Amino acid sequence: MPATEATNLVGGAWVGGTTEVEVRDPSTGEVVGTIQAAGRELAREAADRAAEALPAWSGTTARRRADVLHAAAAALRSRRGELGTLLAREAGKRLPEALGEIDFSAEYLRWFAEVARRPTGEIHAPEAPGRRHLSVRRPTGVAVSLTPWNFPVSIQARKLAPMLAAGCTVVARTSQQAPLAATELVRCLTEAGLPDGAINLVHGPAGEQTTALLDHPAVRVVSFTGSTAVGRSVAERAGARLVRPLLELGGNAPFVVLDDADLDAAVEGAVLGRLRNTGQSCVAANRFYVHRAVAGEFADRLAAAFDALRLGPAVPDDGEPQADLGPMIDEAAAARVRDLVAGAVSRGGELLTRRTDAPAEGCFLAPALVAVADPQDPLVTTEVFGPAAGIVTVDDEDEAYALANASEQGLAAYAWTRDATRAWRASERLEAGVVGINDPLPSVAFAPMGGINQSGLGREGADIGMHEFQDVRHVAWRDGP
What we know:
The structure is a single chain. Helix content is 39%, strand content 22%. The protein is α/β, with parallel strands linked by helices. The strands form six sheets. Strands 14-15-16-13-12-18-19 form a seven-stranded mixed beta sheet, sandwiched between helices. Helix 5 links the parallel strand 7 and strand 8. Helix 3 runs antiparallel to helix 6.
């Protein structure tokens, strides 16, 4: 993206801002591109334009909305290589994972294009002669989409697709740490035929712009993905005007390995579930509870697998092999993970991994696995959000599930067993919005995604993902004389 190109979209026009922000590759520190950021005034103007566009877009046929989303999905797929590389460089995401994220984003657009054309109401059986009752779903109004840097395209797509499919108009804001590929997602939507103002995009200070948007009288629903602490503040601000909050917040996913687990599959799943996107995922396996009968072998094999991973840039130079593990988003994030690991070891934990080397340039961190001395160690109770984890030995299922559920978070949870009865029991006893049984990557567009307890409100994906952006209207109809 040229540095001089306007990156805010307001009322169908790409406009600049008041400040230029550089976006840097965490692998190298090189500038990948720039955005023009602005403040509350631009956010208010974007909401004004969304409100003006609402009557026309909400009145558009479901077929038309579906056609636009299908066209945007095709555009995204046609630019897969270009946008995957851009995403990898700005977010430090390994290129294969970045390309997968572009594919997943296109799938959200395609899925909600199909959902848009499904029936959106219900005719109730009459209980009195001459009277009829029906319920219909209508778009809620202007919607706000607030997304983080770790999956900047797919999370934005997971919000924008159902908002637009439902007939809402949108103001989107991306993280300033990884905004470039998400900006191109918005460009794909506009070029697919969205009318001016149906989608708007602003870059700028998170708190300032979020406050301006939630205070805007036309905004009726906000979808936010991020930390629990920030999610609470978003919900509090939204509550002042009764703006509907849809919140996907922090996770602390347990990974339970029972004594009958297939250890080959469990270790492979643990590596993928813990270290995907360098561990910077809210649904990542964050803490391991392993039955005593297999704990030693599992820990040794997982530590060896961690040690064997090759660290390197998200996008390798020509002729260089693709790294197994990329950089963290910035040095502050890496330092936080180092502190958690060092603290666990200082409190009596055993560092099971042996490698400590990492590329000198960039925000790299060798993966670490610690057998903690206390199940309440901060390495276990904190969402690590990086390539490190604590492992705890348990004596039976009851202890595993009691420890797994001893958290305020409840976004995702995982269990590994070869017994169907124990698998079903795990799905019932693990307290989380998403449960993976022998599956470290449970997220799909056609199933609901979201947490319980302090991990959020509402669901994204599936049919319910569009219902979050619709109101239900009851129509009572009495026959005339």
